Amino acid sequence: MRTTRRTFVQAALAATAATALLPISLHAQAGSPARRPIPSTREAIPVVGLGTWITFNVGDDPVLRDECAGVMAAFFEAGGRMIDSSPMYGSSQPVIGYGLQKLGRPSALFSAEKVWTSSAAAGPPQIEQSRRFWGVPKFDLVQVHNLLAWKAHLQTLFQMKAAGAVRYVGITTSEGRRHDLLEQIMRNEPIDFAQFSYNVVDREAEARLLPLASERGIAVIINRPFRQGELTHRLKREPLPEWAAELGVSSWAQLILKFVLSHPAVTVAIPATTRVDHVRENLSAAAGPLPDPAMRQRISAHVKAL
Amino acid sequence: MSEWWTYRAEDFLLFSPRVYWRMFELHNAALWPLHLLTLAAGLIIILLVAWRPGTWGRWLALILAIHWIFVGWSFLWHRYATINWAAAYVAPAFAVEGMLLLTLSLFDGLAFGRRGLAAWTGYLILAFALAGQPLLAPLQGRGWASSEVFGIAPDPTVIATLGVLLLARGKLLPVLLPIPVLWCLLSGITLSTMGEPQAWAPYAALALAAAAWTWTIIHRRGSPPSA
């Protein structure tokens, strides 16, 4: 059953209030990442997923493929579910498939893929090829990558959803591009997910996209929460502020990931990493308390001043 | 592509430096000891250009043609394309360059025996491609395993070809230039986007070759016409 706008807005407001008043760890089992509902079905998923842009594009390298499988193992072990990829990401899809096979096809997997071709006719065969790479019976979510040929692909995806070949439909952009068009699609199309970039320094999405997602009952996936590693690389030279201890964080990555997760309209953030310790660190950021609005301002102002 | 002005070179980089250099390690391991043969072929090119330029011109073009086609097929198509889908579109360009060289070889379209600054620059670039480029990996701490070798990896193959073309004469010479020039630019952009200092190698080879050709053209125009 699809949640109506009214019921979702009520739920979102309640969630916002709860986030401000309570540490999110109270909603989750101790040590496991917090979960947020996908508005269209109320299915709850962990708020930290796993991106694969660059990090999983390791070709046929057997050593690096095993390292990626190790990252996936740590991800599932720490309670993660959503893995996101695209046909654009080189060998990332077969590398995910290799990892899933090695790990015995974890039932927790929430598979998020994309269709990325300018040809409408090439969409279905590309999705089928991606599915074979992953080795899954069907994808949980398929998104139109970077709004490419979005009208035609959305029709295909809606038909696939109606036929039960995919559970959710979404659309993506990144690095603040084409927000006007994304907003138009979010307003007019019955999509389940929207994916775009948002982080402690790139906050344009707060103005229109995030409130619109709440209003329309659209789940939000945040890509580049660390600006593709640029933020964590820059901040590692700076000492972590003492007040960050209030949030139970031990690293800049956790602090700025908590900033992203603390926006009530955000459903999942998908940081990418090649390191097992980083994937554990990311998921543990989703297990503790999240910053309230005042703390969010403090984090943002502090990072901006550095 | 809309809002194209907002894209940076980094947006098109699909892989990390670690994956890129490990690709050379795997490729070298798979093809060893073919490197000895390709390096010997490179040495033969230098010796033939220096000592028998008139007689063996067509064989030089043939050796280069084989190397271009092999590198395009083995490295770009089978190796690099697994991490960079754009390489699948570049591999045919290597085949085209190989076929052009093959055609010139069949019709004796290249003549050697050039002297002066262009020739010395050609020898310098050729020597760097054969002996200097393989040293860059160990010099930068990556070890010999990821060395780029003439006839095995694209950069030294392309740079060596620039050197040979500087040493050559012939009306069809301009036809052979675009693909090596474009590859040097593409490789330089890829390496600099990864933050690899080695980006200077294809850029410097291209700049040296361009300077030598420019000097030759200016010098030729300034010379009195031969009787």
Summarize it:
The complex is a heterodimer of chains A (306) and B (227). With 306 residues, chain A is α/β, with parallel strands linked by helices.
Key words describing this protein structure:
heterodimer; A: 306 residues; alpha/beta; TIM Barrel; eight-stranded parallel sheet; two-stranded antiparallel ribbon; 11 helices; 10 strands; 14% strand; disordered N terminus; B: 227 residues; mainly alpha; 9 helices; 2 strands; 68% helix; globular
Helix run count of chain A? 11
Regarding quaternary structure, how should these chains be classified? Answer: heterodimer
End-to-end span of chain B in angstroms?
56 Å
User: In terms of per-residue confidence, which ranges of chain B show pLDDT below 50 for 5 or more consecutive residues?
Assistant: none
- The Rg value of chain A, from CA coordinates, equals 18 Å
* Spatial strand sequence of the major β-sheet of chain B: 1-2
What is the CATH H-level superfamily of chain A?
Answer: NADP-dependent oxidoreductase domain
Report the count of strand segments of chain B: 2
Shape of chain A: globular
**CATH topology-level name of chain A:** TIM Barrel
- Structural class by sheet pairing and helices of chain A: alpha/beta
Biggest sheet architecture of chain B:
2 strands, antiparallel
> Which term fits the overall shape of chain B?
globular
**Tally of individual domains of chain B:** 1
Order of strands across the main sheet of chain A:
3-4-5-6-7-8-9-10
Low-confidence blocks of residues of chain A? 1-30
In N-to-C order, the SSE pattern of chain A is HEEEHEHEHEHEHEHEHHEHH
Report what the structure shows:
The complex is a heterodimer of chains A (306) and B (227). Chain A is an alpha/beta fold and 306 residues long. Helix content of chain A is 41%, strand content 14%. Chain A has helices at 5-21, 62-77, 92-102, 123-134, 150-162, 179-188, 209-216, 230-235, 252-261, 276-285, 293-305, and strands at residues 35-37, 44-46, 50-51, 82-84, 110-115, 139-144, 166-172, 193-197, 219-223, 268-269. Chain A has an eight-stranded parallel sheet. Chain A is globular, with a radius of gyration of 18 Å. The model of chain A is unreliable at 1-30 (pLDDT under 50). Chain B has 227 residues and is mostly helical. In chain B, 68% of the residues lie in helices and 2% in strands. Chain B contains nine helices and two strands; from the N terminus they run ααααβααβααα. Chain B has helices spanning 17-31, 34-51, 57-77, 87-106, 117-139, 154-167, 173-176, 178-193, 200-222, and strands spanning 111-112, 168-169. Chain B has one domain (20-216). At the A-B interface, loops of A face helix 1 of B.
